[in-house]
Amino acid sequence: DRRQRQMCIRDRYQRRVRGQKKKRKMATQGSIYIVAEFTIKKDLIEEFKAAVSQSSLIRLSNEEPGCIFYNLSQSKEDSTKFAMIECWKDAAAIDFHFSTDHFKAVGASIGRFLEAPVKITKYDFVA
């Protein structure tokens, strides 16, 4: 079943990275960037920012072994536009992230804030 498959992905990934020393994370060949663009309802902007901050999503995602960086940014030109900008070591790190409780919790609750569907774009590291 799906839950068992996600646990298997998580366990396999954790075993692979366990024991590695903590070092400065940098994007390299094979790294994957994700930009998730959100348009938030104007009257819910502050509540959205508070919900993401209080959820521990950013902190816990940045602590994941395959995360190079993970942050939320707000547009300077349009206060309703936000982007979750992420960089991951590889596809396995993304699979692991999608299986975490903190990702699922925010994903399940974010819909009420959205003015439009989320636009997600993946990029390969070039230089």
Main attributes of the structure:
127 residues, alpha+beta, 5 helices, 4 strands, 24% strand, globular
Outline the structure in words:
The chain has 127 residues and is of the alpha+beta class. The chain has 5 helices and 4 strands, in the order H-E-H-H-E-E-H-H-E. A 4-stranded antiparallel β-sheet has the order 2-3-1-4. Strand 2 and strand 3 form a beta hairpin. Helix 1 crosses helix 4. The longest helix is centred in the first third of the chain and has 16 residues. The chain is globular. It starts with a helix and ends with a strand.
Q: Unreliable segments (pLDDT under 50, ≥5 consecutive)?
A: none
The quaternary organization reads as single chain
Instruction: Please report the number of helical segments.
Output: 5
Give the CA-based shape.
globular
The major pleated sheet works out as: 4 strands, antiparallel
Radius of gyration, taken over Cα atoms and rounded to an integer in Å: 15 Å
N-end to C-end Cα span: 39 Å
Mean pLDDT: 87
Percent range of helical residues: 25-40%
SS-based structural class? alpha+beta
Give the percentage of residues in beta strands. Answer: 15-25%
In N-to-C order, the SSE pattern is HEHHEEHHE
Strand order of the largest sheet: 2-3-1-4
Q: Could you tell me the number of beta strands?
A: 4
Helices and strands, with pairings:
Layout (H helix, E strand, L loop, with lengths): L1 H16 L14 E8 L5 H10 L2 H7 L3 E8 L6 E8 L2 H8 L2 H9 L9 E6 L3
Antiparallel strand pairs: 1-3, 1-4, 2-3
Helix pairs in contact: 1-4
